[in-house]
Amino acid sequence: MSAEALQKVDVIIAGGGVVGLSAALAIANHTNFKVAVVEAFSVTSQNTSDLNVALGHPSFDARVVALAKQSYLQLQRFGVQVDRVDLCPIKHIHVSDRGHLGQVKLEEKDPMGYVVALQHLGAQLQNQVEKHSNISLYQPDKIRSITQEPGAIECRCESVALRGKLLLVAEGATSTTKSLLNISNHVVDYEQTAIIANVEAQRPHHNQAFERFTSQGPLALLPMNGGNANRLSMVWTLDSSKANDILSLTNTAFLDALRRLFSDKLGRFLACSDKVSYPLKLTTASDFIHHRAICLGNAAQSLHPIAGQGFNLGVRDIDALLDVLKDGQYALGSFHQLKRYRELRAPDKQSVVTATNALVKVFSNQYLPLIVGRNLGLLGLNQSTLFKQQFVKFAMGER
């Protein structure tokens, strides 16, 4: 690598997924820092049925994310522009336990959150990053080595060497950059598999999200936009030993099994996309800060989807980071700045990890006393205005 190839920036971001690109835009829009994003995949965007779709990145696919209301407002604060045509508002949430009386129905006048497909969100972020004068995007490229100095951090990539004051790692749970920093992972295998597909129901969803706990595992259905009020995104969590049997079903048999679990709230399920699956594990970094480095989003902790908090937690990471970066008393990338970031984020991260683990244990368990207890809890929650308000605040991402 020649000396002429060395590029001096302020902030280096490893990873150009939704967290990395959101962080880049937040920093570039609200500070004078120069930002460099290094992404292993080459991403392009194209218009499909009047919607922008990002292609080439493995995380920009047909899966959806449920943006809590607070996360949506925070993205707006960052300067991230998300086209409303891509968003589907969540106005109602229905939680139930199949075969039992426990259920909770939540309604709000204003949306409690929004559902957006990752390929649409990815396209919006990619387009804005490419046009921003204070962001340099290196793709496809990878960080091959890291040199940490007292006053700087240098990342040598395949095509460029970058020297900055702060490195943000946003490559997900299995980040190679984390390994270069000697940050290890603690992994808890839930021995569960998430099956994901987009389905079409006989009846419109009316902007309602469903979480149904069954003997086969938790089943979530999220309303989708895109000109079809009957489309929903499905996440079905099963024991890994049972997942292959479900994945091997024909679409007709799969939709019939789905209808039996979900009852007839939306009528029959008429069609589904290709099914994809991935193993569920809790992956936490040994530390989410390092010398002149911070792990954001799933690079810090990758959660079970039962509470839908993964990307929302990443947005709160960026929000806290932005506050710290704008605080003039800290030098960029300094120990005191990273220490302050840890103080702001550690309590929220730990509480979400603890709450998610508790939900997995309570609602994935068919032990009779737990079934009785969780149904009493759902019934009590549904009767208590105060508890329902707190539940809504959690769903909306308010802390």
Would you give an account of this structure?
It contains 10 helices and 24 strands. The strands form 5 sheets. Strands 8, 9, 16, 17, 18, 19, 20, 21 and 24 form a 9-stranded mixed sheet that branches. A 6-stranded mixed sheet has the order 11-3-2-15-23-22, covered by helices on one side. It has helices at 18-30, 69-78, 118-131, 176-180, 240-247, 251-262, 310-326, 335-363, 368-383, 385-395, and strands spanning 6-8, 11-14, 35-38, 44-48, 51-55, 64-68, 88-90, 92-97, 103-107, 113-117, 135-138, 143-148, 153-157, 161-164, 166-169, 185-201, 208-213, 219-223, 231-239, 269-272, 276-285, 289-290, 293-295, 301-302. Helix content is 34%, strand content 32%. The chain is α+β, with helices and mostly antiparallel strands. Helix 1 (18-30) packs parallel to helix 3, helix 1 (18-30) runs parallel beside helix 7 (310-326) and helix 7 runs antiparallel to helix 8. The protein has 2 domains: 3-83 and 117-187 and 281-359, 3-Layer(bba) Sandwich (FAD/NAD(P)-binding domain); 87-115 and 190-280 and 370-395, D-Amino Acid Oxidase, subunit A, domain 2 (D-Amino Acid Oxidase, Chain A, domain 2), CATH 3.30.9.
